Amino acid sequence: MIIDQAIIQPLLVRMDAYAPVINLAGRQRMLSQKLAKAALAAESAPDSQLREASRAELSVALAEWIAANDALRHGSDELRIPRIVSAELESEWAALDHDFQPIVDAAQQIIAGNDEPPRAAAILTHEAPFLARMEQIVGLFELEAAQEVARLRIYSLAIAAAVASLLVTLGWFVVRPATRAIRTQVDELEHRVAQRTADLAEMVASLQHEVAERKLAEANSRRLAAQLSHADRVASMGHLAIGLAHELNQPLGAIANFAAASEVILEQSPPADDRRLHQYLRQISEASLRAGQIVHRIRRFVARTKDDANDYEPVDLAALIREVVDLCQYEIRRHETTLDLRLGEHPVQVAADPIEIQQVLVNLVQNALQSMLAIPAASRCIAIELEVDDDWATVNVFDNGPGFDAADLEAPFAPFHTTKAAGLGVGLSICRTIIAAHGGDIRIRPATSGAHVAFQLPVTQPNVSLANEAEPFEIMDRITG
Ligand code: ADP
Predict the structure, then answer these.
(1) Given its phi and psi angles, is residue 354 left (phi above 0), alpha (psi -120 to 50 degrees) or beta?
(2) Structural Rg of the chain based on CA atoms
(3) What is the predicted pLDDT for the residue at 41?
(4) What are the chain's domains?
(5) Which of 228, 236, 418, 429 to mutate to test the pocket of ligand 1 (most atoms within 8 A of CB)?
(6) The model's pTM
(7) What residue owns the CA closest to ligand 1's atom 14?
(8) pLDDT of res. 197
(9) Which sign, positive or negative, has the C-alpha torsion 282, 285, 287, 290?
(10) pLDDT in tens, 7-25
């Protein structure tokens, strides 16, 4: 179509040029007749006036007739007549001159006033052969045009055939091999994809198997960690039990004494001292409360660790530290150690399993007490400090012992790392597991003297009072205070 538009259509447009040729040839035939008519009229007019008019008409007709003849023979841009050159046409034009020239001469004689016969007769004599030859010339023009159209048809058919064979050649030599090559590659690709899919399916299956195995291993390790943590706590209980038994002795003894004193007062009838009786009874109730509290603490501490982190509850860290200090009170006194507690005035809320955080603190306090056995009692001091910022609550535990090896502050957290003859070396490792599970961090901090261990927990609602948690300790403070 592009070739048709670019080459054939312009050529066909050029063919239109033949139409004006044929029109002009027809007009010239008509002018020939007009010429003959005017010549006859000029010769045979009855008076000089009519003769003059016929001569003028003849002059105009002759000029137009000659112009038309020139245009047909040599071409005319003005009349859109192309110059058509062919041997046959040239010989026809030459032959036409035999009739053309005598007609022109005769007409010019008549126009010049030399109008006696046989001028018009000469025109008439040459007109018939002139028109016949002109007819022939027009026929040749038409033939030329038809041949041109036929040639163009052949060109366009040849071009179409060339394009078609080009397409076939392209199809056969380029597209077909290319299609084959593409099909081979697609087949190969499909094969590779199928193979990869199979490999992937195998990998997915083995990954699923691995994930299942890892989940099982994780569940096992969680269970073992919980068991180990529990064992560690039970071991800690060994140390604490003596102190707790001693502490229980005191309220129980007080209960017995006050009960006996009350009995003495009651034996007197009426009771001699109502006021003291009431005071003893109140003290009995307070002492039994304290004993109950101690037993409650022991039961909570030895209780199994909860597995599920979702069970974390809001805990006031300051109150929890006080509870641990209470729990370790006897141990601290036994080791003749001073305790410096810096907890601030406000509750510090964290989301935690309180038993686990207690276990961490008990471990740190016991480690501190044990590390100071080698130094004089007067120098033994443990400081527990609670710091809070917007995001973190930090518990710092300091002691005056020999401290850690500054070259490797991570080593003590490795499981079974111990320098003690009877040590298990799992305390700090369990502490790290517990604190990490709470989203926090525990580290040994560099210290110029003694030891400094610090753990951090994310704060949930800083400085919000926890009424329920605070209450038991207020009672404790009153009792111990
Ligand atoms: P264990 O107390 O059974 O040895 P831990 O994991 O609690 O296990 O402690 C590991 C080691 O870290 C201890 O053996 C001790 O060498 C060292 N360590 C722990 N706490 C202190 C401390 N406060 N001062 C100096 N060394 C300590």
Answers:
(1) alpha
(2) 65
(3) 86
(4) 2-171 (1.20.120), 311-481 (3.30.565.10)
(5) 418
(6) 0.48
(7) 418
(8) 94
(9) negative
(10) 766 666 666 667 788 788 8
